[in-house]
Amino acid sequence: MDACGSQRAVIFGVSEGSSMACVFAAAHPSRTHALMIWGGQARWVRTDDYPWGLTPAEHERIIQTIRDEWPSVEYLVGPGAGLGRDINPAELEGYLRYAQAAASPSSIVALEQMNAQIDVRPILPTIRVPTLVMSRTGDPFAHLEAARHLASCIPGARFVEFPGATHSMIAIEPERVMVAIEEFVTGNRVSIGGERCLATLLFVDIVGSTQRAAAVGDAAWRDVLERYYALVQQELAVFGGTEVDRAGDGLFARFDGPTRAIRCALAVRNVARQLGFDVRSGLHAGEVEVVDTKVGGIAVHIAARIVSCADGGEVLVSHTVKDLIAGSGIGLRDTGVRPLRGVPGEWRLFAVDHAHGH
Questions:
Q1: Are strands 9-14 and 32-38 parallel, antiparallel or unpaired?
Q2: For domain 9-186, which CATH number applies: 3.40.50.720, 3.40.50.1820, 3.40.50.2300, 3.40.140.10?
């Protein structure tokens, strides 16, 4: 900090790095603008007066596993790195190669032995700077209640919980995490800037709307549509979507992140079924041009073509979306390669099979 002329900084500690961040904030409050912690605990090995973390015996078994078979899948997905068991196999393979190249078994053993000695409980009450503690609900490495306990020991600390069974900050809805960080540091949310930006585009069409209108009558069908769009607006608000355009039987919305867009599509499907009809959805992520409230670009045309390939009740996504949601807990089924009218080449599309919580 001295070398680069920084008088005060926001100190951000992740995992066991949160311990060092806490010590710095306590020892140098005049140099600490604020403190942020992701996936941290006051200590990592359980004791009689600390009920979270590995038992000493469990910790010793992990160390022996490191000596015998570094890098191991169990270490990476479980209480070692906490990647979570929902991680995409290809992504896990990448982490295995990374771990093998980045560290020797003896260095990881030394790290784990050092971590077992960490205990910052005595210094937490002495921290006197604005503090944000963040954790995931199902983190297999940092226990949620331990993170909540850490926050409770720091005077005035704010605790924020995010969904997901992973230790990763970016694997699931990183946009929500970034918004929380920006709001804490700056005091306000930063909107998307510039004329072009990356967006996830969702098109939703009502299946058989003409037949439904003929069956129930125009007035009754208008009432149903009003109820439908009112409920859709609620779901868009929940998942951070922005309505761009609406036709009588279709909706176009954009999102900052693909995971929320998919979950919104599933929620809208549930709304429609409760009202007695079905919808089909198509999603694509790409760069778009934003002019006032209008959104344009080839990505919009691709998303519009994808929805036309979907069957009733189906949520179809492009390969781009599939790659972006790795580790999100959303299951996809390969539906094969399709031509998209007016779009060059052939496109591999995937149907959403399931999502945790739906």
A1: parallel
A2: 3.40.50.1820
CATH fold label, 196-355: Alpha-Beta Plaits (3.30.70)
- Alpha-carbon distances, residue 142 vs 40, 80, 117, 248 (angstroms): 6, 10, 16, 48
Length of the chain: 358
Contact by Cβ (8 Å): 279, 288: no
Question: Cα(121)–Cα(311) distance, rounded to whole angstroms?
Answer: 56
Name the pTM for this structure: 0.56
Instruction: Provide mean pLDDT across the span 334-356.
Output: 84
**DSSP letter (8 states) at residue 2:** T
Q: What is the pLDDT of residues 265-301, one digit of tens each?
A: 999 999 999 999 999 999 999 988 877 677 888 888 8
Alpha helices, DSSP H, located in 132-257:
144-153, 174-186, 209-216, 218-239
> Distance (Å, rounded) from C-alpha 140 to C-alpha 199?
31
CA distance 17 to 19: 5
Beta bridge partners of 352: 332
Structural tokens at position 121: 């409980």
Residue ranges covered by each domain of the chain: 9-186, 196-355
DSSP 48: T
**pLDDT tens digits for range 214-254:** 888 888 888 999 999 999 999 999 999 999 998 767 899 99
Cα of first residue to Cα of last residue in the chain, in angstroms, is 47
DSSP label of 265: H
pLDDT band at 107 (very low <50, low <70, confident <90, very high): very high
DSSP-derived letter for residue 310 is: P
The values of phi and psi at residue 58, to 5°, are -65, -40
- Residues 6+ positions from 301 with CB-CB distance below 8 Å: 342, 343
